[in-house]
Design goal:
Layout lengths: L5 H10 L15 H8 L3 H9 L6 H11 L3 H18 L5
Helix pairs in contact: 4-5
């Protein structure tokens, strides 16, 4: 099985500092491609993308392996996404 060439584009975008949050990865490579490569059901993967806290470390490490970047980079992107989502939610009261 040949790996999608868009993973290299994501790697280059990350290396260049253009991607700041986790979901920006999926502006370049469709989530369906990644979920298929990870062997995660597309609906479950979509739910995980909507709430980054649902990702397990192993899933993030596997994404890093697909992109061929250090695991810490993907963890940092996921953390930045989590904080952005948290900041976006307004407390009621």
């Amino acid at each position: 099985m040949t790996k999608d060439k868009r993973y290299t584009l994501v790697k280059n975008q990350i290396s260049g500092g253009y991607l700041k949050t986790f979901r920006e990865i999926f502006d370049i490579i469709p989530k369906t491609v990644v979920s298929k490569d990870l062997k995660i059901h597309n609906l479950r993967f979509g739910n995980m993308l909507n709430d980054t806290a649902r990702f397990e470390l192993g899933d993030l490490y596997r994404i890093a392996a697909l992109i061929e970047v250090d695991e810490k980079i993907v963890l940092d992107l996921a953390h930045a996404q989590y904080l952005a989502d948290k900041k976006g939610k307004k407390k009621k009261g």
